[in-house]
Each structure stands twice: as C-alpha cells, then as structure tokens.
Amino acid sequence: MTKMTLDQFKYIYFLGIGGIGMSALARWFRINGYTVAGYDRTPTALTDALQAEGIAIHFTEDVAQIPAAFLEHPTQTLVIYTPAIPSTHLEYIYLTEQRFILQKRSQVLGLLAGQMTTIGVAGTHGKTTTSSMVTHILRDAGVNCAAFLGGITANYGTNFLLNEPADDLRSVICVVEADEFDRSFLTLFPKYAIVTSTDADHLDIYGAHEAVLASFGMYVSQIEADGVLFMKTGLSLADKTKAAIREYSLQTGDYHSQNLRIEQGSFIFDIVYPNGVISDIQLLVPGFHNVENAVAAGAVALEVGVSPDAIRSALATYKGVRRRFEYILKTDKAILIDDYAHHPAEVNAFLSSVKALYPDREVTVAFQPHLFSRTRDFADGFAESLSLADNVILLDIYPARELPIEGVTSDLIFQNVHSKSKQKCTKDELIDVVRKMKPSLLVTVGAGDIDQLLPVLKSTLSNQ
Q: Which end of the chain is less congested by CB atoms within 10 angstroms, N or C?
C-alpha cells in the first residue's frame, strides 16, 4: 500500500473543527495553502476566529453544507475527525460510505510532527502549561519552532505557532502537547519527550490505571533511540525506552528547583541542572506545580541548546495559558482566579498554591465536576482536594461526551467534603450564591463550561 502523504490533497475537511487541537491543525493547513472547511456542533470563540480567517464552518449535521468542491473531489479531500464525533453522525456516515480518506486528528498531527524534530510533552496533568512554556522559551530565544498546544497561550493569543520556512524541516523543532486521551500520543515519535505524570485518568477509555501506565510505556518506547526522556522523579518508565533518561521534580532529580520563595505574589527560584544553576528565575504564573513545570521546560530547552540566561529571561515573560491559574480580577477587595483543573491531583496543586499565595484570605472554590465517569472514579479524591478550601460551592456534573450514569451525581463528592462551609447549586444559581457570600478570594475550577460565568462573576465581585 502506498504511504499517504499530505501533498496528495488539496481540500481538508474537519469534523469537530472547533476543538482546541483541531483548530490548530485547521490553521496549519490554511496557512500552508490548502482549502479548509469544517463542521462543529456549536459556535465558539475559536470557530469565530477560524471563520474570520476565511474558513467555512457550519453547525448542523448536513452533507449539503459541505462545500461542493470537497464532495466533487474525494481523492483530493482529506477528512480529519475528532474522537468526539459519534459513528452515528450523518456527515461521518456519508463520508465513510463514499470512501473519502478519514484520519483522526492525532494521526495527521503525527504526520506533521514527523517531518520536524519533535518535543512531545505528555502527562495526565501539566502538559498544556509545560508545552507552552517550552514553546515560549524557544520562541523567545530565537529558535525556529512550530507548536501545537492544548490551550490558548497568553503570550501569543493562540494554541498554534507556525515555524519559519526552512530548507531542512528536521532543523525545525515542533513542540506537541502529546495527549493520552484515546491513546492519541501513540502517533508521535519524538526526539525529546517530557512526561509530567501518569496518574489514573480517562478510565472511561482505559478501564484501569494499569492500562494508562501501559499506554505511557508504549509512548516512551517510541522516543528516538538517540533522544532523551525527561521524566518526573518517581515515574516507572525508565525500562520502557531506549532513550537517555533525565529525572526532574520540584525538589529532587537531575533537574530541580532550590531557593524557592514567594515575593510580592511571584514565585522566585533557581533551576539546578547537571552542569550548573540558573539562579533567580521569576515566574509570573504562580503555583508550586508551575515551578515544577518550568524545571521540565528549562531542562529540555538546555538540551536543545538554549542558554541559561535565555531561559531565565523567557520564563520571566511567560504569561501562562488561558484557564490555567488565570487571574480574572485582582484588586485589594476581591480576587477571582480561574483554573481548568479536573483531576484531584490538579485541584490539590492549584488550591495549595492559592493558599500559599494568600495565607490571610479565606479561599472559596466553585467546582464543576467534569464527566460522570471521572466523578465516580475519583469522588473521594475530589472531596479531599476541595477540602483544602475554606468554603466549597459544588456545581452539577458537566457531562461533556457522556450520558448520565445511574447513581452518579456531585453528591458523591459533596458528602465527604469537610471544609468550614459547603453548599451545592446549579450553574445558573452560582451568581446569586456568590453575590450573597461576598468572598474576597473566589476560584472557579473545572474543565466544563463554568468559565462562561466569569464576566458576570467579575462584575459581581467588583461591585460588592
């Protein structure tokens, strides 16, 4: 069978174009001269941006709305779809029956990244921030790089960065957020890899933690033999790869931080590495977990030749990722911070950092659980992590791609929360609850749609 290459296509059609990863691919194809169109279920800021760039998008399952040129040239049309598209989707059924070439987003991303020198950043949490940190360090240091990220970077306002033209694409570094969901990262064969964590997650896909670990083992086995794996200290992956192993963490490993302190709301620290120390790094984005992410990002940047001074300078201007420890409001009277955390370990890391930054304020958390299966699998862990806050407001479960599971509600978490105060409410009721509570420090947490309330929450807290 002849190997598929991207130059055989003229038209690229996306099923689920509004996803964070899909939108990045759509931009890459458009910028590189392909005709791009797509479907998504609902309009969003991302689809608005794509449409503004000239990409045709529709929001109903209707084959007739696929541009005629795509349908008339099936051999020149590549269909890229996200796993969130069900097999019953009308357009998916038609395109499959008409023998269009369909590829998952991860497969196409693997094809693109394989042309360049890839840095793959994987982990059940921390990968979006770490990959965006790596990207910013490289870009700030003048390294020719591309990036496909899982979040909107504050520095660049996008989840996709295009490289400069190069005669030899292997001279270009491609930073990829390597997603373990649906085993997508197994399409990648990186030269350098970071693995931040291998906790149990996505058990609706994997079934058991052992399967998650096996998948990460397969991922690191695909690192190029002369490459390097930067692995968080304590992970059990060293025997799964032929690549060199470098360990890192907040306090131990070949790369770690020292002299960590908080000064005027910023985390200041040194990165210790095998050949020296990068001293007095100032990180604008707070959080102990983000210091650890910066250690990993600095480690891989050193490996590809970025100087210690350039790393220090870049991290001092790194502004973070939207919905990752994002300040929405910061005044003397009220603070509102939003975070995407949707796993107990992430919630724990986030709330611990908030409490360290603001030891004199009560922390009120509004948490929206994400997925029925994740709530079922980690209810006790969520309850323990949320209990770090003084006051807990627990919303209903955001279902995302799932149907309800009998007996699974946010009550599974709520019953074991032991904070100073706790209450449940719907998303629609949250504004009134906050208005009555008048918290001086409110954090909204979850991977669902709780962020839609941020403008009104900001206004509410500003006027209290």
A: N
**Tokens read off for 388:** 């770090």
Q: Where are the alpha helices (DSSP H) in 171-307?
A: 203-206, 209-221, 288-303
Nearest to 131 by CA among 168, 161, 169: 161
**Residue keyed to tokens 């001074």:** 309
For the entire predicted model, the pTM comes to 0.81
Given the DSSP bridges, would you call strands 160-161 and 145-148 parallel, antiparallel or unpaired?
A: antiparallel
Which residue has tokens 């991922």? Answer: 219
Query: Which two three-digit tokens encode residue 204?
Result: 């609706």
Cα(423)–Cα(429) distance, rounded to whole angstroms? Answer: 11
Q: Which residues contact 364 (CB under 8 A, 6 or more apart)?
A: 389, 390, 391, 392, 393, 437, 439, 441, 442, 443
CA distance 408 to 430: 21
Per-residue three-class SS string for 268-313? EEEEEECCEEEEEEEECCCCHHHHHHHHHHHHHHHHCCCCHHHHHH
The length of the chain, given as a count of residues? 464
CA 70 to chain centre: 31
